[in-house]
């Protein structure tokens, strides 16, 4: 062996001191870092490039939604829910509306349910599109991201037609929607149903059987089903570990039991499985949207967009100006004086990254006495140190992006 | 618990088993909306949760949050447990006096209780004895109050330009 080769002991002499004692590096990952996609701080202790431990700090964008909700009438809480998981805001909106409906015992017509499913599944696709394409970006494959993001744009255009907003939608009202879907929304929706499968295939072709992507993601941040359940995982992250739990099936809400769909599950709970579960879920979501559109096409009723609850649904403007009752209801609603029974409910929906729950306690007042959000991100992000322990720094980045941690939801 | 029982019977089974095991410590039980609610005392809450987890198949801690009952001067803890196999959810509740708000930690049963307990400490000042790392989680560490208690004002109390007496609660 040539003498020119420097012995490891020599160049590491100040790192390795004596015996088993090693000097560890402390690395601040975050709070703002391009690779964390949000404001997360992790103080990592590294041995070379291997992570020994991580300490998380969260709360950088805490906005006290639970406190704010105690001072707002029920209909004004929907905009707060937008700002939790802002990648799929309509699911949060609908979840909140359904919680109040459960408390007040409001039954929504089938047509409203199907319209809601369409909106929620579109939101789920938008969310999964972001998450999966960002996994691609973090492995170094930017191309897929730039292609598939056009489809998110298409979804946001549909949202824009339905409610006028794109990101923080504040869509729907307690009891249904604020207005019917217009022609442009239907046209864009039908166009999306036609185009999306091909585009998704195009995206998958870039990554799913890509050797580099597979080497990079398989066995990266794996997690066992037992640990995942102990840590309260839900949604795609839990299903990637092999547990077939989905709120849409376990606790059907909003007429999901009328639809035919499967729950994709993974095996090892690694980044590749999480990617594949989301990918498959997008196809299921699209099939649900298609089924709903078919059901709606068959329905003779094309006009109903909310339940018949004048206490909660704003009357049309011309009635407000010309009819006494409509004016009274309008005033009562806007002032937040709609009657709410005393009681408490827990309602959960399958959010894009897990079970999104609302625990609402009402004392009969104009605002909730207490509102607690079960935010899936907050609950599963605490497993992150355990997931990345012993892995490389670059795998930690990938694990985080594949967990789909959304800062707004994490910090509420 | 057999898997085929209908929802109401399933609730009854849980009530029977818990009252048999804990007797008078199960203060009351009722069905509110679609969920069975069990009120218990802080002394046995941990044992009740453990019994539910180990004997009654409630494997999953869905969520846990603090409460402040200002009319009774107590702090409460509300736990939602779930049995994924049976598709069954229950809610456990217990209260502690505001002067001595201590619960035993649940981190030994579920790892996920860790942050939930930190959140309850952060916002309500509920302490959990035996918690591995009980410090504030969403608020800054030197925050001077427990903001979700009812006596903590939402608005900045020094402002005079805004009269909210007609609005809010």
Give a written overview of the molecule:
The complex is a heterodimer of chains A (412) and B (169). Chain A folds into two domains: 8-57, no CATH class; 65-411, Orthogonal Bundle (Cytochrome-c3 Hydrogenase, chain B), CATH 1.10.645. Chain A contains 18 helices and six strands. Chain A has helices at residues 8-11, 65-69, 78-82, 89-104, 110-138, 142-163, 183-207, 211-217, 225-230, 235-240, 247-250, 271-298, 317-322, 324-334, 376-380, 384-388, 393-403, 407-411, and strands at residues 25-29, 41-47, 50-57, 342-351, 354-363, 370-374. The N and C termini of chain A lie far apart (60 Å). Mean pLDDT of chain A is 90; it is low at 1-16. Chain B has one domain (7-129): NADH:ubiquinone oxidoreductase Nqo5 subunit (Beta Polymerase, domain 2, 2-Layer Sandwich). In chain B, 36% of the residues are buried. In chain B, 24% of the residues lie in helices and 30% in strands. Chain B has a five-stranded mixed beta sheet. In chain B, strands 6-7 form a two-stranded parallel sheet. The mean pLDDT of chain B is 88. By secondary structure, chain B is an alpha/beta fold. At the A-B interface, helix 2, helix 9, strand 4, strand 5 and strand 6 of A face strand 3 and helix 3 of B.
Provide the descriptors you would attach to this structure in a database record.
heterodimer; A: about 400 residues; mainly alpha; Cytochrome-c3 Hydrogenase, chain B; 2 domains; three-stranded antiparallel β-sheet; about 10% strand; B: about 170 residues; alpha/beta; Beta Polymerase, domain 2; five-stranded mixed β-sheet; two-stranded parallel sheet; 7 strands; globular
């Amino acid at each position: 062996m040539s003498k020119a080769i420097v012995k490891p002991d020599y160049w590491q002499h100040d790192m390795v001191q004596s015996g088993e004692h090693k000097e560890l590096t402390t690395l601040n990952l975050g709070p703002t870092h391009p690779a964390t996609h949000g404001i997360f701080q992790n103080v990592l202790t590294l041995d070379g490039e291997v992570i020994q431990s991580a300490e998380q700090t969260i709360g950088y964008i805490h906005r006290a939604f639970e406190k704010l909700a105690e001072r707002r009438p029920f209909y004004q809480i929907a905009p707060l829910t937008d700002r939790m998981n802002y990648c799929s805001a309509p699911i949060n909106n609908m979840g909140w509306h359904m919680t109040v409906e459960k408390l007040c015992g409001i039954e929504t017509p089938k047509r409203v349910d199907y319209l809601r499913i369409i909106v929620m599944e579109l939101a789920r696709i938008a969310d999964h599109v972001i998450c999966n394409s960002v996994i691609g970006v973090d492995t170094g494959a930017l191309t897929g991201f730039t292609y598939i993001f056009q489809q998110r744009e298409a979804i946001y255009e549909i949202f824009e037609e339905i409610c006028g907003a794109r990101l923080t939608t504040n869509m729907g009202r307690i009891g249904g929607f604020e207005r019917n879907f217009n022609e442009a929304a239907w046209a864009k929706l039908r166009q999306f149903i036609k185009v999306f499968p091909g585009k998704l295939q195009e995206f998958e072709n870039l990554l799913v059987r890509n050797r580099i992507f597979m080497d990079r993601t398989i066995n990266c941040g794996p997690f066992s089903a037992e640990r995942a359940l102990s840590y309260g995982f839900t949604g795609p992250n839990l299903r990637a570990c092999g547990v077939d739990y989905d709120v849409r099936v376990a606790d059907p809400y909003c007429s999901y039991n009328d639809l035919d769909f499967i729950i994709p599950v993974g095996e090892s709970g690694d980044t590749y499985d999480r990617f594949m579960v989301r990918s498959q879920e997008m196809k299921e979501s699209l099939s649900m949207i298609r089924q709903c559109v078919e059901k709606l096409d068959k329905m003779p009723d094309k006009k109903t967009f909310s339940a018949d609850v004048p206490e909660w649904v704003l009357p049309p403007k011309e009635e407000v100006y010309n009819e006494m009752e409509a004016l009274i209801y309008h005033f009562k609603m806007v002032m937040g004086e709609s009657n709410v029974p005393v009681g408490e409910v827990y309602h959960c929906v399958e959010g894009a990254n897990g079970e999104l729950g609302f625990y609402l306690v009402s004392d009969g007042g104009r605002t909730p006495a207490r509102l607690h959000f079960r935010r899936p991100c907050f609950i599963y992000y605490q497993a992150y140190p355990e997931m990345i322990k012993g892995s490389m720094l670059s795998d930690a980045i990938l694990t985080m992006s594949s967990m789909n941690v959304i800062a707004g939801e994490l910090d509420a | 618990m057999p898997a085929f029982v209908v929802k109401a019977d399933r609730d009854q089974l849980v009530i029977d088993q818990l009252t048999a095991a804990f007797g008078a410590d199960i203060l009351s039980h009722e069905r509110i909306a679609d969920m069975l609610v069990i009120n218990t005392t802080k002394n046995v809450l941990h044992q009740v949760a453990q019994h539910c987890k180990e004997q009654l198949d409630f494997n999953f801690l869905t969520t846990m949050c603090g409460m402040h009952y200002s009319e009774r001067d107590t702090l409460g803890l509300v736990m939602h447990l779930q049995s994924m196999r049976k598709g069954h959810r229950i809610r456990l509740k217990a209260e502690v006096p505001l002067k001595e708000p201590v619960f035993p930690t649940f981190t030994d049963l579920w790892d996920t209780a860790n942050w939930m307990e930190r959140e309850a400490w952060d916002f309500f000042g509920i302490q959990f004895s035996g918690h591995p790392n009980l410090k504030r989680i969403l608020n800054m560490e030197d925050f001077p109050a427990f903001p979700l208690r009812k006596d903590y004002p939402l608005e900045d109390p020094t402002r005079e330009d805004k009269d909210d007496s007609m609005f809010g609660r």
